[in-house]
Amino acid sequence: MRNIAMIVSYDGTNYSGFQSQPGCLTIQGELEKALFVLTGQHIRVNGSGRTDAGVHAKGQVINFRTDCGIPVERFALAINARLPGDIVVQSVYEAPQEFHARHDPKSKTYRYSILCSRFADVFRRKYELHHPTPLDFAAMAKGLEHLIGEHDFSSFASPKSTKSSHVRTIYECRLEVETLLPFEDTDAWRYPGKQRGRIHLYVKGNGFLYNMVRIIAATVILIGEGKLSPSDMARILVAKDRSQAAPTAAPHALSLWALDYGEVFGDKPETPDEA
Questions:
Q1: Radius of gyration in angstroms for the set of CA atoms belonging to the chain, rounded to a whole number
Q2: Residue 8 in this model has a pLDDT that exceeds 60
Q3: Which one of 40, 62, 137, 233 has the minimum C-beta count within 10 Å?
């Protein structure tokens, strides 16, 4: 049996998340349906993680076992012809027999996008949170620094989390800022110390809890608004109390961005660049 690995991108707007659910439209369900049409086999797909309803992915990784003889160089074209337009297989690899998409990643990176502009961007509204007033980007970046390292992230985990331990290690937590055009920033003088722009929050770690990135995003927005100070992020972290952090941010601005599997694919690239 071959062990096939794929890098998959998808727009999660119309889906009830990645994982198959009875009576629901899911990414896993569409992938398995396309594989059945392509190979005639009932194939179970393993995903690197379960993105929630409305969450997108640039670099989701899946693997499955099959004895079909389609060459890897033709697999992507073949399956994409059988998938809906909002799911695209970017690349296909013949993986080692022991490879498992969920068990083997060394790190995962998520991106949460926020547009600080008076008006929403009609073309990107499905992929970013619209925040109509400016935010203090410098304060937000300073607050995020407190999350780097190994911590108990109970304050940033949904009460629905089923994990026995909430200890995770965050390797990187940063903001990337895209400035707006001058005509979009005409009222900046009204908000001293704050800016308008499109910001992307990148969080890279060895694992994530249910709703963790969305709760971090909502909390750092409160810092940007001046309702919390950067040092409050450390206080919230130490509290290990979900009620201390902000309500969970909307799912549509979140994307599973990239995964790192080390040398498992040899000298081939694993997932999209994180920047």
A1: 20
A2: yes
A3: 40
Question: In a 10 Å sphere around its CB, with 0-12 CB exposed, 13-18 middle and 19+ buried, how is residue 222 labelled?
Answer: buried
Task: Give the E-state strand segments of 100-241 in sequence order.
Answer: 107-116, 129-131, 149-152, 167-178, 197-205
Angle at 201 between CA 200 and CA 205, to 5 degrees: 140
User: Any known ligand binding at 15?
Assistant: no
Q: Is the pLDDT of residue 108 over 90?
A: yes
DSSP calls for 37-96: HHHSS--PPEES--PPTT-EEEEEEEEEEE-----HHHHHHHHHTTS-TTEEEEEEEE--
At residue 115, the 3 state secondary structure works out as strand
* 15 φ, ψ (degrees, to nearest 5): -115, 150
Give the C-alpha separation, 152 to 241, whole Å: 10
Specify whether 52 is catalytic: yes
b/e per residue 117-130 (b: at least 16 CB within 10 A): beeeeeeeeebbbb
Domains and CATH numbers, the chain: 2-104 (3.30.70.580), 107-256 (3.30.70.660)
DSSP string, 227-263: SS-TTHHHHHHHHT-GGGSPPPPPGGGEEEEEEE-TT
- Return d(Cα 230, Cα 191) in angstroms, integer: 18
Catalytic residue among 52, 241, 267, 273: 52
| pLDDT tens-digit map of 13-28 | 999 999 999 999 999 9
Q: Are 219 and 144 in contact (CB under 8 A)?
A: no
Q: pTM for this one?
A: 0.91
Output the six-digit token pair for 151.
């911590």
In tens, the pLDDT along 187-204 reads 666 777 888 899 999 999
Q: What is the rounded distance in angstroms from the CA atom of residue 211 to the CA atom of residue 163?
A: 12
